[in-house]
Amino acid sequence: MQATRIYLGNIPFETTQNELEQMLADYHPIAVTIALDRKTNQPRGFAHATLRTQADAERAVLDLDGKTFQGRRLVCAPATHRGTPNMRLRKDTWDSND
User: Fold this and answer.
1) Which candidate, 9, 43, 50, 85, has a CA 20 to 30 Å from the CA of 31?
2) 78: which strand partners?
3) From residue 77, how far is each of 56, 60, 91 by CA, in Å?
4) What backbone torsions phi and psi does residue 44 show, to the nearest 5 degrees?
């Protein structure tokens, strides 16, 4: 079992880590990190979550992408390394052999 990270975008700035953990509970989150601005320490509107398995991550992306969360439409995708082109991968091209 290899833990896998996902990207959660377009989250409200008021969202707490606990609220994201509750939303992700069915997908077995190991860690959830809300991105903060380095200068202001304010939320940037996105987060990353580490989930227990690749299967959990795939289910989360399929279930949560486009779902309304606290009045906003979520963007959920496999996380990529900073600077990687095509930051948002299409669900239909997900390669689980990475």
Assistant:
1) 85
2) 6
3) 12, 9, 8
4) -100, -5
Overall size of the chain counted in residues: 98
Q: Which residues, listed in sequence order, are joined to residue 31 by a DSSP beta bridge? A: 50
> Residue 7 pLDDT more than 50?
yes
Report residue 51 CA to chain centroid gap: 9
Confidence of residue 92 (pLDDT cuts 50, 70, 90): low
Q: Helix/strand/coil (H, E, C) string of the chain?
A: CCCEEEEEECCCCCCCHHHHHHHCHHHCEEEEEEEECCCCCCEEEEEEEEECCHHHHHHHHHHHCCCEECCEECEEEECCCCCCCCCCCCHHHCCCCC
Q: What are phi and psi of 64, to 5 degrees?
A: -100, -25
pLDDT digits (tens, 9 = 90+) for 54-90: 999 999 999 999 999 999 999 999 998 766 555 455 5
What's the whole-number mean pLDDT along residues 21-32? 97
